[in-house]
Structure formats: C-alpha cells, structure tokens
Amino acid sequence: MKVLVVGGGGREHALAWKIKQSPRVERVFVAPGNAGTAIDAENVAIGDADVPALVKFAKDNAIDLAVIGPESSLAVGIVDALSAAGIKAFGPSKQAAELEASKVFCKNLLRHADVPTADFRTFRDAASATAYLVEREDQPMVVKADGLAAGKGVIVCETKAEALEAVQRIAGDREFGAAGSQLVVEERLVGEEASVLAITDGRNIITLPAAQDHKAAYDGDRGPNTGGMGAYSPAPLVTPALLEQIQERILVPTIHQMKRSRRPFRGILYAGLMVTKHGIKVLEYNVRFGDPECQPILMRLQSDLVDVLEATVDGKLDEIAPLVWDERPAVCVVMASEGYPGKYQTGRPIRGLEQAAAIPDVKVFHAGTTLKGDQVVTNGGRVLGVTGLGATIAQAKLQAYTAVKQIRWEGAWCRKDISDKAHA
Which residues form the signal peptide (predicted)? Predict the structure, then answer.
C-alpha cells in the first residue's frame, strides 16, 4: 500500500510514524511534512490546503489511502475531492467537518441532539453580543469565534469587562479574520477538562482511551490559550463507567443527529469535555486527531492503525478485531518557541535530537520544524512533542522530561507540569 498523510504538524508526524509500522504499507508520503516526517516518511512539497495538487499527486502516485490531519484541510472539502477522484480518504466530508469549522453549527446540533453543553447564545455581530452582555450580571463567560482560528479563537473571561473586550477583538477588530463573522457567548464551566476521541464509520464507534490536554500556556493552567502544550493518556479522571456514559449520552446521539442532518460522519470525532459537579458537558467537537493528544494515544496503540483507518472509510469498523493497547501511560511535552502563542522567531538551529531519541521508550515528534541543509531548525510556535512511555504516569513524565533536557535551541521553553493533574 501507498499512503498519503496530509499536514505538517506533530499529529501528522505521529500518524506517518504509526502508519509506517504497518506490514501492509510500502511507502508513506507526507504533504507538506516537516523535518521529522522527512526521516520517518517521504515529504511532498504540496500545501495541506492545495486540494487540486493533492488530488493530482494521489492519482499520479496510485495512493491507496489518504489520511487527512488538519481541520483546515477537512473544512475546505479535501475528503470529498479525493473520494470523487476514486481515492480512499480518511476524514469527514466538508459538510460533516462543520461540526468543528462552525462553533454555531456545533452548539445548535448539540441542542437538537439533547447533548449536555454550556448554556449559550449566538450572534452575527459585535453590537448584538455587546448589548446582550451589558444586560447580564457580571459573571465568568467564554467568547468563541465561530470559525477556525488555529486553537486560539476561544477567550475565557473572568468578568463582564473582559467578555466585552473579547467580543470587540473577535467580531469588531476581526483579530481572527473571517472566523469572527459569527460568535458564541456561553457560560463558563468549572471542572476538569478531558478529551475523548472516537473513530466512527457513521454506524459503529470505537472509543479510544481518554487523554488530557493542557491548553493554557503556562504552569498551573495560567496564561493565554494555545494549540496545546502537552497531553497524557490514559486520563484517570475518565473512569470506565464515565467513558461508557460519554459514549451513550454524548458520542452516539451526536452521530445519530449528524445522520439525521444528512451529514453522515466518518472519521475521528474528538469530544472536548468538562467534568463538572453537574455532570459531564461538551465544550467543543473537533473532527480530527487532536494535537498533541494524538501523540500519546498513538504511542500506546499496538494494533495496525491502517486496518482501522481503512475499515472506517469502508464502513466496516464492526469487522475488525478489538484494538490492543500498551498498558503503560504516555506523556507528551510540547517544546515551543519563545513568544508563542504570540509572535515568535523561526530558523533557530535545534541541538540534541539524537541524544533525546536514544532515551528508551521516547519518541520526539516534530511539529514546527524544517530542514536547512542537514540542520533541523524551528519553523513554528509549537516545535516538538517529546513523548515518553512509563510504567506509571509519573514514570512516563520522567522519560519525556529527561528527553526534553537533551534538546536545546535559542528561546526554547515548555510547561514543567504536564500530567501532574493525574495525581491531583
């Protein structure tokens, strides 16, 4: 088999690395890839949203399966285009991808499916959202840009003044561009966050072990939201009983409602959840593997990923054997560029990758990297996802941070407390 992975981040490196392990696969291409995928696969110089060029490459190279990583590629309909060209593609259609691409669509669907979520209102402009907030009592709120904003279009506000400022940034100043053409204002939920990813072919669901992401930039969950500063799996917070409840009350009703809406969903359904004292509630849905949740989850997967992806596309998930997992937990620590999630420099040489790779039960997944000659240099805000396995979560954390200490570049930083919530 020949497989094309679309994307260039840490998630795509993890996917390419895992797919390459399948005895059924002879070649793995990654478009556009990064310095890590250049080692574990073959990079193709095509942007992940250049649909015509990707379809042409897939046809010219007789690709047997395309696996789409980024939400932006799914939102422009790459799965539809590849399928129309006779290429098997893993991921939801453009219409189904609206579950992530439009927070307004998602919240309305949750309401119709009777899936628990935060109370909310949707608005088409800054003036109406401002008028609504002015009349409300001063309480913590969350303001969300409707469209895709690379994980940064959600502003958590402690006060009414902060919420009004968030509305102005999103819908007035258009800080996130077209993503701010509509917005959601919702109550702020209090509790512990967890991520549950499920693979579905539209009829059958395989729920993956829970993970916990760390969205805030700094230790103790302080600072601005990022695309994710680290993750670990499994998350003790999500017990087997709670996982069953999530499947029955959240995932299954959502997939049924998508079918009723004539947007059948195939691919990864990623539920961002808040475990509150009033029960579990959906914060948001993503329609692809999370980044960095993908890294620790795939580090633990022992089954052939290609079998699972292909069965999803073919609508035959009920025919594959139960997935096999390494019982050891995995912890992924994101190393970022100075200034992230704001402005940052690129092109800084990275040292110590070989030393980190030599540590047992560690894999360094590349995200924002590129090659400058033979030198790996930084090329993004989130640069590496250093992932370790261990007999316990504490041991997995130690493995990951031992590897982190080997890696250096000017301005490198990371959170020091990834996975500590597991012991709280």
Answer: none
